Task: structure prediction
Amino acid sequence: IEAEALSVLLAGDSEKPVVGMVAPDMPICLHRMQEIERREILNALERNRWVQSWAARELGFTLRQLGYRIKKFGLEAVVSKQRKHSA
Result:
């Protein structure tokens, strides 16, 4: 979530509506955010030669958090395959 998005959400209590503001289609936004996160995880893993602890540190995650996301996005097979090839 970007700071700009938060300011729009927090300003939602004001009586004056924001002109031209359209409510986002939440499922599409969520899907796009998840796809961006998935890509960033894969990119970090590739940059760090598929060493999860290094990638986690780069992303600002704990190793456990990165492991959760790898599982959440179904990346276990990709990570396993790439680690074998990079060893």
About this structure: The chain has one domain: 23-86.
